[in-house]
């Protein structure tokens, strides 16, 4: 058995990655270390004897050292604070988890001589691009505390003396994404005939990739990537936010009058775009929100639970004045 540590596996991408890895690698035993923050959801976890869940904090050295004790051949670090709007309200959790957490994992990986450490980063580290596409050589120009914490983690990872590979992917969509993010928020609000909040003029551009394609790309990097290298992963689907909101209304047969333009996100990056030629890998799925919309329609209990509790208060603070 190959022992693999995946962190953040109760979150959106981490849970999809574990499911894909269990399907593709019958010889893997996966330990999933996740602190179950507001973003971690036990309902996302697979039930499989080759998956072992441990609740714990990647920034806590005692926990991490204990988890590393039996040793791992591979580490895939997906645990992070991930929501830009929350980072604008307070950056401490982002610095702690994304930077100190990554450092803590790297220190243990170094001590235990882990053969490969995959650091899951983001296109946001390159900042906003008016034209062209960022390559792996482009300068780091993070413009919000989340992106800054991810950029810092990348630099910490590259200098840790561990065989690290960094991936930087564009925006993911698909089932199980937390409702704080734009696409699930629009889908679930539309299902409830509530406003779809679009920041600013709605013309900010993101490049969207299906989460299963992103996970397949990570698996490709594990097999073919070279330690010390950075690989961009791109969806190749640059779309304005307003186009996304309109598509969701169309798929759900809701009126576009539900779309509401609201006060912009401070320092809102206009456009992210990547050149992913270096990896030489292409996503398989054409951009289509139908399956994702159907998943949220069919899994109302999942998102109603996520939308209650902590999220209600967050939503009120974040959108109360704007809507
Ligand atoms: P998510 O917010 O859905 O999940 C994050 C997970 O990390 C949660 O399960 C949470 O409980 C866990 N976590 C947070 N702090 C922790 C800590 N201190 N210790 C242990 N676990 C902790 O995030 P996601 O969208 O699945 O993103 C996963 C990774 O992919 C992140 O590193 C993110 O930066 C990166 N990424 C995301 C996207 C995207 O579009 N969502 C795109 C590119 C890169
Ligand atoms: O680019 C990769 C990044 O994508 C990841 O690294 C982040 O973890 C992930 O959260 C995501 O960041 P974004 O800020 O791009 O995602 P979000 O879903 O928050 O917003 C997508 C776009 O929609 C962005 O231009 C802001 C806009 N938006 C967002 C929300 C929440 C709105 O117009 N209204 C909203 O209510």
Uncertain residue segments: none
- The shape, in one word, is globular
Strand elements, count: 12
Provide the gyration radius in Å: 19 Å
> Strand order within the widest sheet?
3-2-1-4-5-6-10
**CATH evolutionary superfamily of the domain at 2-172 and 208-233:** NAD(P)-binding Rossmann-like Domain
Structural topology:
Blueprint: E1 2-7, H1 12-24, E2 28-34, E3 51-55, H2 61-68, E4 74-77, H3 84-89, H4 92-111, E5 116-122, H5 145-158, E6 164-169, E7 171-173, H6 182-191, E8 196-199, E9 205-210, H7 211-224, E10 230-233, E11 238-240, H8 241-251, E12 259-262, H9 290-298, H10 300-307, H11 310-319
Parallel strand pairs: 1-2, 1-4, 2-3, 4-5, 5-6, 6-10, 7-9, 8-12
Antiparallel strand pairs: 9-11
Helix pairs in contact: 1-7, 2-4, 4-5, 6-8
Describe the structure.
The protein is of the alpha/beta class. It is built from eleven helices and twelve strands. A seven-stranded parallel sheet has the order 3-2-1-4-5-6-10, sandwiched between helices. Helix 1 links the parallel strand 1 and strand 2. Helix 1 crosses helix 7 (211-224), helix 2 packs parallel to helix 4 (92-111) and helix 6 packs parallel to helix 8. The longest helix is centred in the N-terminal third of the chain and has 20 residues, at 92-111. Nicotinamide-adenine-dinucleotide (NAD) binds next to helix 1, helix 4, strand 5 and strand 7.
Features:
single chain; 323 residues; alpha/beta; Rossmann fold; 7-stranded parallel beta sheet; 3-stranded mixed beta sheet; 11 helices; 12 strands; globular; binds nicotinamide-adenine-dinucleotide; binds 2'deoxy-thymidine-5'-diphospho-alpha-D-glucose
